Amino acid sequence: MTAVVMLHGIGAGARLFEPQRASLAARGLDPVPLDFPGYGTRPPVDSMDFEWLAADVEAAITERGLDRPVLLGHSMGGMVVQTLLRRQPDAYAAAILCATSPAFGNPSGDFQQKFVAARMKPLDEGRSMADMAPETFAALIGPRGAATPWREHAIAVLGETPSETFRAAVRCLVTFDERASLGAIRIPTLLLAGEADTNAPAPVMERMAGKIPGAEYRCMAGIGHLPNIEAPEEFDAIILNFLDRNLKGSA
Question: How far apart, in whole angstroms, are the C-alpha atoms of residue 7 and residue 186?
């Protein structure tokens, strides 16, 4: 049975992939959503970097005895997937990069500094992650996402992230740059974008797909930054179709 290791973004956790569990299992796949350090039931952290996050995922894969799993990364999780593929390019059966990007640019740049300041400001003013979760969710989704039955679940997950972990993740995010590694990816890779995603714009992901040999690109109409929550049935159908065609019976 092929495992699908699912890696979340900066404001969420493994529980964000709850909608995918049943559909993956029904197809004979083993869904393995992982919490990064500081998320879920793991103790909060005040610093992180991508090599450390990748090593943590590698340790979890080894501990579980998973042989060449599929990697599915959302947002920051997609950045960790890119790091994993550079570190061990032949250790995985396929990769799905969802609502992510290949770089954040120079961490000392004006855009990056403004990005960090904007995300820290509500916390600096005394608001909690739970306080901000409803408006965070509303800002992330596209026009079709408002009808999702997973709204309350997603808001609860967004509200669970410890503030110190979120701060550490934001500081980590702006250091990311794997653009030079894209051309070396040599496993089946799907890039899945949301048409209305302003955090990982679809045109950026389409250009990214063009730099990965043989990569497939799909864009979900009317969907924002949380495609697996906003339209889970469509999301699952896209990734299962990709895996059906690329796992060559290993599932």
Answer: 20
- Inter-helix orientation angle 50-64/76-87, to 10°: 70
- In order of 43, 115, 246, the CA distances from 186 in angstroms are 35, 33, 13
pLDDT digits (tens, 9 = 90+) for 149-168: 999 999 999 999 999 999 99
Cα separations in angstroms, 214 against 39, 46, 181, 211, 249: 34, 38, 15, 9, 20
> Tens digits of per-residue pLDDT, 3-47?
999 999 999 999 999 999 999 999 999 999 999 999 999 999 999
Q: Which residues are registered as beta bridge partners of 242? A: none
- Residue 23, class by beta-carbon neighbours within 10 Å (0-12 exposed, 13-18 middle, 19+ buried)? middle
Alpha carbons 24 and 77: distance in angstroms, whole number = 19
**204 has which bridge partners?**
none
What pLDDT, on a 0 to 100 scale, did the predictor assign at position 107? 66
Say which DSSP state 103 is in: B
Mention every residue, 6+ apart, whose C-beta is less than 8 A from residue 236: 19, 20, 23, 24, 228
CB burial readout 154-190, b (16+ within 10 A) else e: bbebbbbbbbebbbbbbbbbbbbbbeebbeebebbbb
Dig out the tokens for 51 from the structure. Answer: 């090599």
This prediction has a pTM of: 0.95
